[in-house]
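With this grant's support, we have settled on a layout for protein records. A representative record follows, to show the layout.
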Amino acid sequence: MKRIALAVLAIFVAWSVLDFVIHGLILRSTYEATAQLWRPMEEMKMSILYLAVLINALAFVGIYAGFFAERGIATGLNYGLLYGLGTGFSMGFGTYSFMPIPVYLAAVWFVGTLVETLVGGILVGTIVRK
């Protein structure tokens, strides 16, 4: 149980840092150019955002710990790749299909999510062992 809690915490922190890099640095100018699509900074619900990241980390680790008999970094990376392909593509390009965002934004959301889940896979594969 301690390893599961540690993995959730590590992934939550890693994903939060990567979110800052992706959204706060890499995509800053894209968000500024499409400001009409987003809430103003003072209206953003950051507590809900962090709760969403935490729940995603809990689900990510829970699936790995509950359904993978073979564990390790390779398994974690494969899991992170599949999880990232599914969630990243649907988030990036699924949103692009109905919202007027630039294709660049959709692509960075997809690739950024994939990077995050690969990092999450390394962490969960390293921390959660038999």
Summary: Residues 78 and 121 are 7 Å apart (CA to CA). The chain has a mean pLDDT of 97. The helical segments are 2-26, 28-33, 46-67, 73-98, 103-127. Residues 2-127 form one domain.
